[in-house]
Every structure is written in structure tokens, then in C-alpha cells.
Specification:
Number of helices: 9
Largest sheet: none
Helix content: over 70%
Number of strands: 0
Mean pLDDT: 91
Low-confidence stretches: none
Strand content: under 5%
Shape: elongated
Order of helices and strands: HHHHHHHHH
Length: 186
């Protein structure tokens, strides 16, 4: 993020000196974000592994936790693609943008089917979450489970849909609840 992006975002709300302070503060604590990323990815994959283990249990199957974790971690790489597309988009296509533009842009998501100004803040995250890469993630998870159990893909799909998908739906509901709680006017 550059200083120009901060000015594009906040110039109508803050004085120049305050924008510079915000940018400098963000630069000062940038290293914390780099430390949090591996912790967040590990925690996320542990939770997804637990969800898949529940799906396996509900489908009368067993798989070692470490093997399921490896499947979840491998599937996680699919989410690098939208970040790469986002980077290319803002470097080459839309070069004049705000922080809000970056936060609300998610390539190949259901959000792209709507005019974002016409949506409530409550619906933005669910529409971002339902995207082509999320579906690819489900398929990779199901394929990994199929391969690990040495069974057909239907078994993998059943595990994903009985373990991961309900947890994803619960997560979306929690985020929507928090969104409503923080900004009740939406």
C-alpha cells in the first residue's frame, strides 16, 4: 500500500497530516501482520481439519488427523490464485484505487454479479465468499479425501458437505452477526 492509496481513501475525511500519521503507523506495525499470517493459516487449517474429521466421522470413515491436515493445507494453495489476480488487477488494470476498492474486490466471486453500492454491508462478505476458488477448494478437499480413503469422489464430496460446508455456513452467519452488531444501519 502506498501513501497515494491512503490519500485516495481518506482525503475527503482527514487532513493531510493525519493521513501521513496513519500511513506511518501502518508502516511501523507492518511486521506484525507478517507474523500473524502463518499463525492465522495454521489455525484456519486446524479448524478445517477438525471439520473434515467430523465429516469423516459422520460418514463412518477414519483418516489420521495429520493426513487430513495435509489435505486441508494443500487445498489452501488454491486461495493464492485470487490474491495473484487481485495483485495483477490493481497493478495493471485499475491503478487508481482506494483501500475500500482493495477490500471489496474478490475475483470471480458472486459479488461481481451485483453493483456493490446497491448491496448492504451485511451481504458483501457472503457474496465474496461464494466464488470459483471456494468451489475449487471444495473439489480439492473432496479429491484429497477420495485419494486418502482410496474410494470414489462421492465419498469425498459427502465428507466435505457434511463437515466443512456447515462450518462455513456457521462462519458466514457469525460474520454477518458481527457486521450487523458493528453497523446496525446496514
Amino acid at each position: 500500500m502506498t501513501r497515494d492509496i491512503y490519500y485516495n481513501t481518506f482525503q475527503s475525511q482527514l487532513e493531510s497530516a493525519r493521513i501521513d500519521e496513519l500511513f506511518d503507523l501502518q508502516l511501523k506495525y507492518l511486521w506484525i501482520g507478517y507474523l500473524v499470517i502463518p499463525v492465522w493459516i495454521t489455525l484456519k487449517n486446524l479448524i478445517i481439519t477438525l471439520c473434515l474429521q467430523i465429516g469423516l466421522l459422520l460418514n463412518n470413515s477414519k483418516l489420521k488427523f495429520s493426513h487430513t491436515f495435509r489435505i486441508a493445507l494443500t487445498a489452501e494453495f488454491v486461495f493464492l490464485l485470487p490474491q495473484l489476480i487481485k495483485l495483477i488487477w490493481f497493478l495493471l488494470v485499475k491503478t487508481n484505487y482506494t483501500l475500500t476498492d482493495v477490500q471489496q474486490f474478490y475475483p470471480l466471486s458472486a459479488l461481481n454479479l451485483f453493483n456493490i453500492e446497491n448491496l448492504s454491508a451485511l451481504s458483501i462478505y457472503p457474496f465474496q465468499t461464494f466464488n470459483l476458488f471456494e468451489i475449487m477448494y471444495w473439489i480439492i478437499l473432496a479429491g484429497g479425501i477420495k485419494q486418502a480413503l482410496n474410494t470414489d469422489i462421492n465419498k469425498g464430496i459427502k465428507v466435505v458437505f457434511s463437515g466443512y460446508i456447515p462450518a462455513l455456513a456457521l462462519w458466514l452467519l457469525c460474520v454477518m452477526f458481527i457486521t450487523v452488531s458493528l453497523s446496525p444501519a446496514t
